[in-house]
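In response to reviewer comment 3 from the previous cycle, which asked for concrete evidence that the modeling workflow produces usable outputs, we include below a single protein chain processed end to end. The sequence was submitted unchanged, and the resulting structure tokens are shown without manual editing.
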Amino acid sequence: MGPGETAQGVALAQTAREAGIECKFVITDIPSANWVVNKGFKQVVAIGSKPKRVTRYIDEGYNPEQIVRIIEMQKPDVLILCNSKAYSWGFIKRPPKPRPLIVSLDSNWLFGQYQDVKMPEWIDKFLVIFPEKIFRAGLKKYGGYYEIKEKYLRKIIPVGFIPSYKKVSPETKKKIRAKYSIRKNEKLVFAYMGTGITYRNKLLNKIFTALEVLKNKGYKFKLIYTADRKINKPWAIFAKEFLSHPDNFNKVLGSSDLVISHQGLSTLFQAIRNRVPIISNIPPKGEYHSGKYHTSFYEIKTFEKLGLCRAVFRNLPYTYLMKEVKNLFDNKKIVNEMKENQEEIFKPGEKTALEKILNLQKEHEKT
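The workflow returned the following structure tokens.
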């Protein structure tokens, strides 16, 4: 589990804990493990390395059998994989014994199409963590991009957004905007370029270049951002330390008038939850390790097709991003339509997922 997967697991585990269900974690990311402990979950096993399949070095990484044995010691009733691709990437290679109900939380449409996304037969159900309308829109037979074999489709259940995040209240918005001295005639722009392996360094310069041109044209706004470095501009606020806390991240994002982000779905989910217009910077189509297309391209294009965001190719000059920002600054009709689409489609997924899991567990116990 990395940061994104951990957020999914914690969101579901918090709902389960409220129902009196005990939850335990195995995490292969130390900062994420610390965050889980801070959320009040004390039974956390943290492994400070990735499997050999990820490190690509023979003398590094753990043996996935180690993970299975840790799980077997706990004797769970249900094993939840936060991303079924954990199998393809070597995090886990077999089911534990005795075999519990096994489900996964998945945030994409990749189920067995390519070599790097092979699916084990022993996963009982795939819970897709966004609403069914979005999942259907991504399928080729409904005008989307993805073809999924029937044997996998039978196992897929879209449950809603996980995490569904907390909607930022009007009172919190006032406090955040006061904290950063956002005037009534100014817009608040929030920028996030990812973190770790998802960090997009070139996107930072592109955002600053596009916004400076607009600032010189008289547009009134302030930018709040987090990145690996600070760029000194009077209209930009570097808030890396404050935004490193996930709750603060959501508060600032939800108080914004516009979000400019990398292709991350977690950031997109938060924008949808808070009805904030968002521009996602996506990779172009091309030949990638997972096959003939890059999943992020088609993922975000599906959300854009439903009017939930705008997508810009991140390999294009800054002028393309600037044009989208200017359009969302100027055109209230487009902004309002995006907000309406976001509100209409939003559905929290934690309770639905837990109900599905508990019903599946009852059926599993009968076998």
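The radius of gyration is 21 Å. We consider this sufficient to address the reviewer's concern, and the full set will be provided in the supplementary archive.
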